[in-house]
Amino acid sequence: MRQAGRYLPGYRELRRAHSILEIIRNPQLAAKVASEPVLRFGFDGAIVFSDIILPLTTMGVNLELEEGVGPVIHEPLRTPDSVGHIFPGRVEDLTFIYRQIELLRETLPKVPVIGFAGAPFTLASYLIEGRYSREFEQTKSFMYRNTEAWGSLMNNLTETVIAYLKAQVRHGVEVLQLFDSWVGALSPNDFREYVKPYVQQILAEIVGVPRIYFGTSIAGLLQELSDLEFDVLGIDWRVNIGVAWREVGKKSVQGNLDPSTLLGGQVVALKEAKSILNEVSNRPGHVFNLGHGVLPQTDPAVVKAVVDFVHTHTER
Predict the structure, then answer these.
(1) Is residue 6 flagged as an active site residue?
(2) Rounded distance, CA 169 to CA 121, Å?
(3) d(Cα 95, Cα 176) in Å, to the nearest integer?
(4) Rg (CA), the chain
(5) Distance, CA of 84 to CA of 270 (rounded, Å)
C-alpha cells in the first residue's frame, strides 16, 4: 500500500512543484506517479493515485490535504443540523480519476489496476473530528447521541462510496479496496450496530471484481467481519496472519508486514517477510502486502529486495 510516496525520488521531485491534490487532479501526472513504482519494483498491481477523502469534495465539503497532517476538514460536523447539509456526492464529476485509470490501463496493460475508496465510518470520522484523532471521541459521542443524524450521514456516505466504486470499475479498475482505516477504534458491539450494515451494503452492491476490506487494529473485530461479503480481508501487523485467516474461514487474506521493518534494513525486512510466508505456507489466496503504507524514510532498495524475495519464494 501507498506504493507511490515520499520514499521515491521521482515523487519527491514532483511534489516540490505540485501539491498532492494538484497531482491527483492531473490525470497525466497521477498516472506517472502511480506507474513509476510498478515499473521500478515489479509490483503485481498498480494502485490509483488518490486519497480516500476525495469523494467528500463532491458532497460540498471544504477540505485540504496538509503535509504531515493528512486530510483536514475546515468545518467539522458537530451537530445534527450540520448533517443536513451533506448530500450524496456527484461522483461523475471526478473525471480526472477515471481518466487516470484509463491511462494506467494503457501504460500497464499486463498489470491489474487497483481502485479504492474510504469506508463510511472512516469518512464520517474525518467529517466529525476535522482531522485524524487518536480516540475519536467526537465521532463516538455524535454516534451515540445523535443516532438519527448518524444514520442519515452514513446512508449518504454509503450511497456516494457505492457510486464512486462502480464508476471506477466502469473505467477499468480490476480490483477494489475499501479502506476502513479507523474502524479498529470501535468495540465489536458498536461496529455491529453503527457501522457493519453500511459496509455490508457496499460490498454487496459491488460485483464483478475482487473486493478487499481493510482496517487497522481490527484483531478484536475479526469475528464480526467474518460474514461480510468481501473476497479478501486486509490486515495490519497487529494480528497474526494465521489467526486472522482462521477467523475469516475460506476467504483470502492480504498482509501483513509491518512497514517499520523496512526501516531496519534488508536483513530484518527479509526475515520478517519470510516469517509471514512460512506462517501461511503458500496457502492459496494470500496476497502479500504491508500492513499499512510505505513510510517516507524507507530505502527503495529494501522495497525492491522484499518484492524480489516474495516473488522468488512464491514461484517455487
Answers:
(1) yes
(2) 22
(3) 18
(4) 19
(5) 51
User: Do 21 and 65 contact (CB within 8 A), yes or no?
Assistant: yes
Model pTM score: 0.95
Active-site choice (126, 164, 198, 213): 126
Domain 9-230 has CATH 1.10.1040.10: no
Instruction: Classify residue 90 by burial, with Cβ atoms within 10 Å: 0-12, 13-18, 19+.
Output: middle
CA dihedral 273, 9, 5, 101 (to 10 degrees): -110
What's the pLDDT tens digit per position in 252-264?
Answer: 999 999 999 999 9
What are the extents of the domains in the chain?
A: 9-230
| Cell numbers standing for residue 76 | 467539522
41 φ/ψ angles, rounded to the nearest 5 degrees: -110, -15
pLDDT, position 315: 65
- Position 243 scores a pLDDT of 94
User: Active site residue: 7, 11, 25, 51, which one?
Assistant: 51
Burial of 260 from C-beta contacts in 10 A (0-12 / 13-18 / 19+): middle
Residues pairing with 25 in the sheet: none
Q: pLDDT at position 314, please?
A: 75
How far apart are alpha carbons 179 and 121 in whole angstroms?
Answer: 10
Cell of 136: 475519536
CA distance 308 to 311: 5
Q: For residue 139, what are the CA distances in angstroms to 17, 124, 185, 205, 206?
A: 35, 8, 10, 26, 27
Catalytic residue among 15, 40, 90, 99: 15
pLDDT along the chain (316 residues), means of 10: 89 93 96 96 97 94 82 92 93 97 97 98 96 92 97 98 98 98 96 98 97 96 96 96 92 96 98 96 91 96 98 78
Q: Which of 2, 40, 78, 238 is catalytic?
A: 2
Phi first, then psi: give them for residue 171, nearest 5 degrees: -95, 5
